[in-house]
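Hey, can you fold this one?
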Amino acid sequence: MTGAPDPLDLHHEGVERVIGVYLVETEDGLALQDCGPSTCVPALKAALAEEGLVLSDLRHLLLSHIHLDHAGAAGTLVREHPHLQVHVSEIGAPHLVDPSRLERSARRLYGDDFDRLWGELAPVPEENVHVVGSSVLGLDCFPTQGHAAHHVCYLDGDGTLYAGDAAGVRIMPERPVWPVSPPPEIDLDAWERTIDELELRAPERLALIRFGVVEQPRDHLRRLRRNLRVWSQRVRQGVTEEEFVEGVREDLEEEAGEAPYYERAAPLWQSYRGLRRYWEKAGAALSGD
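Sure. Predicted structure:
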């Protein structure tokens, strides 16, 4: 396969370019890279139908990590298609089999919006769950922590890196790159090492779940690193959530990006709270509210 396919748009909450997933040809048939939440299963089926496919045509699900916007529908899909094999990091695997802890944590974060945003979080049978190694179905696979401890990326032989959230959010064809940083697991040192690893592997392109294919990975990763440092230092210096949000919006305007699209895909309040939690755990002095 040459190049990367366009993402299948899941039209989360009826909005385009918020969550996408990718069809990937593997050594053992067709795979879906990430699957979105259960609320998007009808849109996923519709997108597959546009490709002349049905759910049972998929043999594998390659998960970048277990956050609900990437993996929430995994159990729902396996219940409907019991032969679907799910590949995930060692850290993430137990939470697919028993998602109760993951759901409790997400409900604390999203409150009454949980069901509207994500829908059912069904367990995946243990026999369908496979812990990834350094190679998965002919793709290179490697840990890419920072955004989450359970994050991995997949790199195919044509140079396409299926990046999950490790390479941030960029609503193509816009230029801004946001290092989306929700609680509770942001690790800035680990994310810096992940960016080092992505640069070392020198992919030809980045396939972003949010949203689209980047053909200039080196520049993209450089701007990801810069913004990760800028955002984290602002929070460390004690800005309030309101100040953080307004500052990032101003940055976006300077880069001629579209704030509504970006904030639907990556709400800034989440990144503020994730970064604040990181610095509080690190013992940094924070003077904001």
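The CA atoms of residues 183 and 274 lie 4 Å apart. Let me know if you want another pass with a different chain boundary.
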